[in-house]
Amino acid sequence: MPSIIIKNKQNMTKIELSDIYYIKSHPTKPHYLQVVADSGTYDYLQKLSQLEHLHSTMLVRCHRNCLVNVSKIREIQLKDKQILLGNDGQYQVTFSRRRYHQLLKTWLK
Questions:
Q1: Which pLDDT score is estimated for 1?
Q2: Which of 11, 40, 66, 75 supports an S-S bond with 24, CB 3.0-4.6 Å?
Q3: Which domain holds residue 52?
Q4: How many whole angstroms separate alpha carbon 85 and alpha carbon 94?
Q5: CATH number of the domain to which 24 belongs
Q6: Which of 16, 20, 9 is nearest to 45 (CA)?
Q7: Longest dimension (CA), the chain
Q8: Partners of residue 16 on adjacent β-strands
Q9: Is the DNA-binding keyword given for this protein (predicted)?
């Protein structure tokens, strides 16, 4: 099973891609990503484009600053341009017009 390893000063955490809901640019830390998974939220020093290239079968770019796990998408709301992730739709991410068709094509496969 593909996974990523997140390192910080205290520990290293291995997260399976199937447990990740979405990955987006960190709102306050430049050059960091925010990984939201079943086990929590993590800060990850990596480029979004590199993750997209390595894991293009599971992670799809929905916006210029965000990747979503296609298997976790529950619903796509066209009017609000929102993607609901998780069993209950507890996570919401916006998508851009530019990325919509590729996102829909990958999700419906």
A1: 76
A2: 66
A3: 3-108
A4: 11
A5: 2.40.50.1020
A6: 9
A7: 43
A8: 3
A9: yes
CB atoms < 10 A from the CB of 42, how many?
18
Q: What is the pTM of this model?
A: 0.93
Total number of domains constituting the chain: 1
Bridge partner residues of 82 (DSSP) = 77, 94
pLDDT at 9: 85
pLDDT at 67 (0 to 100): 97
CA proximity to 42, closest of 18, 58, 26: 26
8 Å CB contact between 68 and 62: yes
Which pLDDT score is estimated for 109? 83
Reduced to 3 states (helix: H, G, I; strand: E, B; else coil), residue 106 is helix
Where do we find the tokens 């066209």?
Answer: 78
The DSSP H or E segment spanning 51 is helix 48-54
